[in-house]
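agent> step 3/5: call structure_predict on target '3-phenylpropionate/cinnamic acid dioxygenase subunit beta' (Pelagerythrobacter marinus).
agent> reason: downstream docking stage needs a structural representation; sequence fetched in step 2, passing through unchanged.
tool.input:
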Amino acid sequence: MSDAGKSGAALAAGVDRDLVFEIEQFLYREARLLDEERYDEWLATMAPDVHYWMPGIQARYRADKADLISRTRMAYFDDDLDYLTKRVERAKQTTAWAEDPPTRHFHMVSNIEVEATEIPDEWVVHSLVLNLRHRNEAEEQTLTARRQDLVRRDETGALKLARRLIRLQQTVLQAKNMNAFL
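tool.output (status=ok):
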């Protein structure tokens, strides 16, 4: 494709705008699947070697040079496909008291940027996500996060989520549970 077929941001990242659009649609569909509790379809968007990680964030002064996130500290999620599948199966059980009545989710994904990697058919994707959670009559919680994903095209041509790093903006969660996928 000539440079005329690329947007400015896509050209800078070495990614064609049709691919950017395809990845945006992939992320928007993923959000809708989660909102509609279509968890088995959502799991089907994952690569077999997926790593889904949401570390705890620590508030630190600028003078403190320690990392804000670390593999050695706590994480809300540090899941592979087997554990994501277990979480989905648990959420579907009638005994899942934290989801009865079910939480009503609203996911909004924005500020999507796609960058080429050195590996063909793999892209680093940056995005912002807003998750509004509503329970019962008056419980409401807002989660905001920056995400860094690795999206790859599998042998069938489908896009799959291979890695997700979720950086919450909140350092302390006020939620009674963390039954959410971001």
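agent> step 4/5: record observation. The longest helix spans residues 17-35.
agent> proceeding.
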